[in-house]
């Protein structure tokens, strides 16, 4: 009797399915027959399911609806849609966000999405495995409440602030008290509006992190270097915990950010300074100017005392 794809051993089919990277194609495999359905479903639910579009979200929603038991098996989910209809993502949220979830990543627009997430995550439900939640395009009181809700399990968070971001700091419980997130080890701080003083107000109460990725677009330059150095020495809270630091920015004459962070984190073992086009969820791309040789030398001098250091940038052509 000849061997066909229908008669292949289960172990071999699983290997074949594991090579398939396209989530949609795996869903198609699951529709071939009952045996393939079971095997393809096991592969789908064992991996990080990434949804970048409305179409992909609808496919995954119908995949979950086909069998309610599947929702309890979703452990790793990433949502990162552009500007689009978020209805299927909210519907997925109601099905897939269970105490079984361990990693919920990505970035997503819309306060309504996070309001629903907060509503689903009632205080009476224990989410003991959840290490991450998606970043919001804008920080808000709702997102602040989510950080408080999951403060006992979160290990990695990303906070976004940009020009349209408006919130009342009096209503924020967590932003300036991130040390309450007991297991937090990695923080990404992505901002178009923060100055160094506001960044310090956040970071001074976040001394448990080991990895920091910070993108500060400062609106004003430091004009009084002596006064700035006095502020660093007298008002900056130092932390010996941080080991890896990545600094991203796009504007000129902001190298004092490096001075501030290198002083604040004296025990860092690796530092990356990046001056490259940044892709943000709400902007999608940005333009940065090349760095001239003298500026490159200046930055390298500031970071050369760190064990592992690197500068990633576009180099200006010689005049």
From TrEMBL:
The organism's place on the tree of life at top rank: Eukaryota
InterPro entries with a match to the protein in the record: F-box-like_dom_sf, F-box_dom
Residue intervals of the F-box domain: 2-49
Coiled-coil parts of chain: none
Name of the protein in question: F-box domain-containing protein
Organism from which the protein derives: Mucor plumbeus
């Amino acid at each position: 009797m000849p061997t066909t794809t229908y008669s292949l051993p289960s172990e071999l089919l699983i290997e074949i399915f594991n090579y398939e990277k396209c989530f949609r194609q795996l869903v198609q495999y699951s529709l071939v027959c009952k045996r393939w359905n079971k095997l393809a479903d096991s592969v789908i639910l064992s991996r990080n399911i990434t949804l970048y579009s409305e179409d992909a979200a609808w496919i995954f929603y119908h995949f979950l609806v086909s069998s309610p038991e599947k929702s309890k098996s979703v452990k790793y989910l990433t949502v990162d849609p552009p500007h689009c209809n978020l209805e299927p993502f909210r519907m997925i949220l109601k099905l897939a966000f269970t105490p079984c979830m361990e990693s919920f990543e990505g970035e997503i627009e819309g306060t309504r999405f996070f309001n629903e997430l907060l509503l689903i995550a009632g205080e009476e439900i224990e989410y003991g495995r959840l290490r991450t939640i998606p970043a919001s395009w804008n920080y808000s009181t709702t997102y602040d409440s989510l950080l408080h809700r999951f403060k006992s399990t979160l290990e990695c968070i990303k906070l976004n602030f940009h020009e349209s971001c408006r919130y009342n700091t009096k209503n924020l419980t967590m932003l300036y008290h991130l040390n309450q997130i007991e297991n937090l080890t990695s923080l990404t701080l992505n901002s178009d509006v923060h100055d160094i003083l506001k960044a310090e107000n956040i970071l001074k109460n976040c001394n448990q992190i080991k990895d920091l990725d910070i993108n500060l677009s400062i609106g004003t330059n430091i004009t009084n270097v002596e006064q700035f150095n006095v502020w660093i020495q007298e008002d900056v809270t130092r932390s010996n915990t941080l080991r890896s630091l990545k600094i991203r920015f796009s504007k000129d004459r902001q190298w004092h950010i490096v001075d501030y962070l290198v002083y604040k984190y004296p025990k860092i073992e690796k530092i990356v300074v990046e001056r490259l086009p940044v892709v943000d969820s709400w902007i999608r791309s940005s333009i940065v100017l090349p760095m001239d040789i003298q500026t490159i030398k200046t930055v390298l001098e500031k970071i050369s005392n760190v064990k592992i250091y690197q500068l990633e940038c576009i180099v200006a052509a010689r005049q």
